[in-house]
Design brief:
Order of helices and strands: HHHHHHHHH
Distance between the termini: 43 Å
Shape: globular
Helix content: 55-70%
Structural class: mainly alpha
Number of domains: 2
Number of strands: 0
Strand content: under 5%
Number of helices: 9
Length: 259
């Protein structure tokens, strides 16, 4: 049984490398004006526009064999490409281990969610944008999770509206400093995915993580106090933790601090 689990996890990780390569295409094309449809057309070098062959696109290994440079124009290939692939592979392996071998349908759902969260994370971190397509996909996953439970859906949606409205108010009051309207839409669909009270945990974790990273960058003199960083990646991290471990964390909190 242990050998089967290892094969299951390793196989899912290899599948994650392939999905990570596709996510790189989505991250670039959904956030670059004038790019072709993310689902059609051959991959190409963004510097020389040369169409890439299959052997230029093998996840991670092509980057290593090419020494991080385009085969045709020798322009540097961004480190973000193997990073996305590796992060996706490791995330998929962790999700497979968490979900278990007995629940393939649940694994598929969790992997789709993970891929969408990775897409949002790197889109916002690299380009400062959260693609509407990713937000819509996340919202559909949230709606699917509440099929047959109208009361739960209503609570999740109303919670999302409240927090999204608070985010919108902050944008108006701060004139868009620190967050954007993409964050507002993200918070709304986060609530659909997580429900109440997991959405509260996700937001708290996101703001804490964002604050720690911001302070660290300031102390390292990589950022100034008046500069901001994207909030979306930290909301994504909070969403991932709350989705997989929210009930456990919340139960532990109430055991430690009973009312």
């Amino acid at each position: 049984m242990a050998d089967l689990v290892i094969i299951w996890v390793v196989g899912t990780a290899l599948f994650g490398l392939i999905i990570g390569s596709f996510l790189n295409v989505l991250i670039y094309r959904l956030n670059t004006e004038g790019s072709p449809s993310p689902f059609f057309g051959r991959s190409f070098c963004p510097h020389c526009q040369h169409v890439l062959n299959w052997f230029d696109l093998v996840p991670i290994f092509s980057f290593i064999s090419l020494n991080g440079r385009c085969r045709y124009c020798r322009s540097p290939i961004g480190l973000r490409y193997p990073t996305v692939e590796l992060v996706t592979a490791l995330s998929f392996a962790a999700v497979a281990l968490y979900t278990g071998i007995q629940a393939p349908l649940l694994l598929a759902e969790n992997l789709i969610l993970t891929a969408v969260l990775i897409l949002i994370f790197f889109s916002d971190w690299i380009f400062g944008l959260i693609p509407d397509e990713a937000v819509i996909m996340l919202g559909l996953l949230g709606l699917a999770a509440h099929i047959g439970n109208g009361e739960e859906l209503a609570l999740a949606f109303s919670s999302g509206l409240v927090f999204a409205s608070l985010f919108a108010l902050l944008i108006v009051l701060t004139r868009g400093r620190g967050m954007g309207w993409g964050d507002v839409k993200l918070v709304l669909v986060m609530s659909l995915v997580l429900g109440w009270p997991n959405i509260l945990l996700a937001l708290w974790l996101g703001f804490v993580a964002g604050g720690i990273v911001s302070l660290t960058l300031v102390l390292l003199q990589r950022k100034k106090f008046n500069e901001t960083i994207a909030l979306g990646p930290f909301l994504v991290l909070g969403t991932a933790v709350a989705y997989f471990y929210g009930p456990t964390i919340i139960s532990a909190f109430f055991r430690l601090y009973p009312h």
